[in-house]
Amino acid sequence: MNKPLRKIMAIALALAVGTLVTAQRAAAADLKPALTIAFAGYDQLISNLKALDELSPNAKLADKAKAALEAQTQGKGLAGLDKSRPWGVLVTLSENDQPVVQGYLPTTDLKKLLAALPLPGGEPSANDKGVFELPAGEKTIYAKQKGQWAVFSYGEDSLGSAPDDPLPALSDLTKKYTLSLRGSVQNIPAAARENAIKSLRGIVEFTLAMQPSNSEEQRAIMTANVKQIFDKLEKLSKEIDTLVLGVGLDASSKALFWDFEARGVDGSDLAKSFAALQDAKTDFGGFALPGAAMTLLSAHANSDAEVADLKATLPTYKAAADKVLDSNEELSKEKRELGKEVVNEVLGVLEKSVELKKSDCGMALLLDDSPAAVFGVRIADGMKLDEAFKKLAKALADEDSKPAEFLKLFKFDVEKYEGVGFHVAKLPPGNAKVADVFGNPVQIVVGINESNLYMGVGKDPIAVIKKAIDASKAAPGKAIDPVDMVISATPIAKFLAKAAPGAEAKKSLAKAAESLAKSGGKEHLTLTVKPIPNGMNLRVNVESGITKAILDASGDADE
């Protein structure tokens, strides 16, 4: 983390002086921002860096940041700046849909602040209207003191339309995040949104049309996908209310976090879809296995609109698969018809699974003495899928192709557990290192019953799947967040320390694993999705043990 304040200040100041786009005159005083950028302020940044220094004292992030500031301002510091208040940028659209950027710095003496900054051309002076002109390459930035704020913009006239106080637009963001960005989609005129999507769609369709390598079938699938994507975009442009990105530090736990929030317009289909995230329950909770390097649980209800969208794609894929089979002259007529039958059965299972209106799955990665990756998902009419799988393997038994060779490795109904029939393929590992990790041979497993599909790879994935089945059965309908992923850094660091090729790498990773093991269990990276009013919040959270290990390693590298 070399000179962090310099980088953050460069970004924040660039935003604050409005270098995003060329601004035109703002015609109305009541324009609502389409984009808001908020920085919690200098004091908050230093407070966060001091909290991180408590994790790894040798890092001295706060001292380095202050030293960088002194060097950048030639010892003057940020004279004239109120370090306790936030910074911000508001981007609105004028009557002719041109962006107007207004940046805010908290200061009661703009002239003193500008004198402290290393600006090209030396210290600027104000004109008779109190406006400073700051050269910025081929453009000019205009700045003016307005109450307790310095306002910056590319257009001198737009300074007059700037709100006297940006805090109403910033405070809800700065209370939660150190640095954040909010896009207010409905504050962008509908015509501007429609034109942007139309232009992007034209570019994508032209690009696809110019791809000579794509077959007619591939082009048909891509064209259908593009249509569906842009139809969704057009709908979303009318239904998304706000999008928020934010980064912060939890002062009590010293965990770093990144948030993405999306909210739908009240009463919209999107808002209803987000509401379906409430009360998520899973029948795959047993995949959160103790000691796993990574676990993932996900469950949510699907809306009628989502079901319709998913089902609408199936005929396109069926038609494309049928056409590929019909054009394959190497296959006999009987096998082409059998291929169509299998495709139809698989798509039928997929359609029935979609009609359940519930997504539910679990996953786990173990990196202990018996490494394995396993996965389970809810399906409908699982035995129909099982029959199709066996039928395909039988049909390709005398074929000479990569898919056929792979299917020939499977031994069907090797074992049955809790109604799940397991089919196993054993593959020779590619090299000795793979053999050391995943075994020799590597096992690939497919397990199916009427309502579930399981898959796994590793030394003994069936044993791991059995554990997950037992634990899931013991706690059916477990309440969870709609998405809950947990990555445990300690087993990953231990695994990499063993597998790393060089002595130095092994030593560094072993040291990191030791540090993580002493973190008191605070060595997780989590990704969760939670419902919020009319929307959802996706958070990536990095616990303090991981941050400490990274800072310690950075400190060692600097020495």
List keywords for this structure.
559 residues; alpha+beta; 2 domains; 19-stranded antiparallel sheet; globular
Largest sheet: 19 strands, antiparallel
Helix run count: 18
Taken together, the total number of domains comes to 2
Termini separation comes to: 14 Å
Helical/strand content category? alpha+beta
Percent of residues in β-strands: 25-35%
| Uncertain residue segments | 1-29
The geometry reads as globular
Helix content: 40-55%
- The counted number of beta strands is 21
Helix and strand topology:
Layout (H helix, E strand, L loop, with lengths): L3 H13 L18 E5 L2 H14 L5 H12 L14 E7 L5 E8 L3 H7 L14 E6 L2 E8 L2 E5 L2 H6 L5 H8 L4 E6 L5 H20 L6 H24 E10 L6 E9 L4 H7 L5 E2 L11 E8 L2 H24 L5 H23 L2 E9 L5 E7 L3 H14 L6 H7 L1 E8 L2 E8 L4 H7 L3 E7 L3 E7 L2 H14 L3 E2 L3 E6 H11 L3 H15 L6 E9 L2 E8 L1 H15 L1
Antiparallel strand pairs: 1-2, 1-7, 2-3, 3-6, 4-5, 5-6, 7-8, 8-9, 9-21, 10-18, 11-12, 11-19, 12-13, 13-17, 14-15, 15-16, 16-17, 19-20, 20-21
Helix pairs in contact: 2-3, 7-8, 8-10, 10-11, 11-12, 16-17, 17-18
Describe the structure.
With 559 residues, the protein is α+β, with helices and mostly antiparallel strands. The chain folds into two domains: 4-187, no CATH class; 264-301 and 357-558, no CATH class. The chain contains 18 helices and 21 strands. The chain has helices spanning 4-16, 42-55, 61-72, 110-116, 156-161, 167-174, 190-209, 216-239, 269-275, 304-327, 333-355, 382-395, 402-408, 432-438, 461-474, 489-499, 503-517, 544-558; strands at residues 35-39, 87-93, 99-106, 131-136, 139-146, 149-153, 179-184, 240-249, 256-264, 281-282, 294-301, 358-366, 372-378, 410-417, 420-427, 442-448, 452-458, 478-479, 483-488, 524-532, 535-542. It has a 19-stranded antiparallel beta sheet, sandwiched between helices. A two-stranded antiparallel sheet has the order 10-18. Helix 2 (42-55) packs antiparallel against helix 3 (61-72) and helix 8 packs antiparallel against helix 10 (304-327). The radius of gyration is 29 Å and the shape is globular.
